Amino acid sequence: MPTHADVMAKTIAKQGVEYVFGLPGGEIVAFIDACRRAGMRFLLTGHESSAALIAQVVGQITGIPGVCAATLGPGATNLVTGVASALLERSPLLAVTAQIPCGIIRTMTHQRFDLNAMFAPITKKSVTVGSEDTEELIDKSLTLAAEPRPGPVHLVLPSDLAVAECDSAVISKEEATKNQPNGSVGLSGKVTEIGARILTSKRPLLIFGLGVTPVAAPAVRGLIETLKAPFLVTPKAKGILPEDHPLFLGVASGMAIDRDVVETIQTADLIIGIGFDPVECDKTWFADADVVSIDSASMSEGSYHPFEALGEITSLLTQLIATISHAKPWPKDLLRTRRQAVKRSARPAAKGVSPLGLLEGLRTVFPRGGVATCDVGSHKYLMGQFWPCYAPGTFFMSNGLSGMGYGLPAAIAAQLVYRERAVLAVVGDGGMLMMLHDLALIRELQLPIIIVVLTDSSLSLIRIGMERRGLPAYGVDFRPPDYAAVANSFGIRGEKATTVSEAKTAVERALTKRYPLVLDVPIDFREYYDLV
After folding, report:
1. Based on the number of CB atoms within 10 Å of its own CB, is 103 exposed (0-12), middle (13-18) or buried (19 or more)?
2. What 8-state DSSP symbol labels residue 330?
3. Are 223 and 206 in contact (CB under 8 A)?
4. pLDDT confidence band for 177 (50 / 70 / 90)
5. Which among 483, 429, 426, 485 is positioned nearest to 457, based on CA atoms?
6. Is the pLDDT assigned to residue 170 strictly greater than 70?
7. What pLDDT is recorded for position 100?
8. CB 44 within 8 A of CB 23
9. Would you say the CATH fold of 355-531 matches that of 189-340?
10. Distance between CA atoms of 79 and 496, rounded to whole angstroms?
11. CA distances from 149 to 56, 143, 237, 316 (A)
């Protein structure tokens, strides 16, 4: 008879999961081995946080929850940041942690935590295996993780239960999904009312947020073509429409030149949120705006109460388009003014390279459909606003939890899913220092990821914030290693570029020859003061 670990692994595998990410420990190895026998590949990461970050981005791309595994005690606590990130990044994730054997947990205090209590606030659900039918538990957990809004589900697996016999009967993926609703909805009176409010508005403005998945892109295009009103995107929705579209007015909000973007929002008399999730906003302008919302889940909370039509977004957009009898374009002069408001040029750099100039240069040589990931730091603000995206699912950024260390694991996830596509990670020297261990996995799998490290010897975003408060820059400067040399020590090509031209040449060469590259670029962080 199969064990609980066997049933868990087989049920997960039948959902189409290919990889399990994590670090083994004595108490979780039975589950890891069961995953191997079920046909999933276990990939060893250098830290549990990376395992959760990689898994969540795999889940975000594929729509199938990514899976990570860790042992009890420190393994579980190390997983916390990555799991919390999945909650606020709205990414489907299944996190499995081991626990002390059921028979001795009341006596054994070594490495003992109440894991359900610890993970409950940062997951959609945290439950212990054995509390209900194991096959049914896994199936329900995967469904919960993927349904709107997606997020993490945590399972506690006591080590004795993992190897105990389980009489659950594993069902097929087809059987698991055949009775689920197909997402279709009938014509909604709320959609009709939203259409009516759009038609009575003078300057409607669309904001596309993280709830809009790539599958909805055709309907999004149809809405823009019908309404002919301008639009913004949030960072996690970049690329849902090409950013060289004549009606694109920038990225909202919390990115570079945010004051200009918020001014554009305030120019509108009606905000039409499509999948708009305030989790991406570091200010509360949305609570003061007149917002109507098309979404798969309610975002109403606190002082924010949009008029909502909830359901499957593509279907709702199709219904909304049918209610729009005529277009609602903005005056040409106003549209031109607001487009010009988000244009910026790189400033001359006295020491090092202009960060904006570097990003502009890299974008000219990076493929239009390539995938870019961005870590957290000052460069995130520039990348979010000024890195143009042209296709859905080509940009990944932590903008819910906004945790440093996201960029490199996200790039690994993207390259695992998109084997033939170019993948670029842009990280700061502080974030790179956190995630150096990921180079070992990149080297092992020979993933041709290009990693551009913006080196300024400071946590510049914090430095700027301190100085604006009248505080001295204290505890933010450090001496980074030679990242090119570090990369070489991992068996990955490392180079240093001191000009934009050198950086472009190095990236073009790596793209052509398809090898992993760490490119260390010293930058002049003073440009951030004008943009962040």
Report:
1. exposed
2. P
3. yes
4. very low
5. 429
6. no
7. 85
8. yes
9. yes
10. 33
11. 13, 11, 15, 17
Neighbours of 166 (CB within 10 A): 22
β-strand pairing of 41-44 with 248-251: unpaired
Q: Specify the amino acid at residue 89.
A: E
Domain boundaries, the chain: 4-177, 189-340, 355-531
CATH fold for domain 4-177: Rossmann fold (3.40.50)
| Pair of tokens at residue 114 | 């109440």
Of the candidates 33, 37, 44, 39, the one whose C-alpha atom is nearest the C-alpha of residue 18 is 39
The CATH superfamily of 189-340 is TPP-binding domain (3.40.50.1220)
What is the architecture, at CATH level 2, of domain 355-531?
3-Layer(aba) Sandwich (3.40)
* Cα–Cα distance for residue pair 290/307, rounded to 1 Å: 9
Instruction: Return the C-alpha torsion angle 148, 420, 511, 366, nearest 10.
Output: -40
81 token code pair: 């940041």
Which residue bears the tokens 């505890």?
475
pLDDT 10s digits, 317-350: 999 999 999 999 999 999 999 999 998 888 887 7
pLDDT value of residue 188: 64
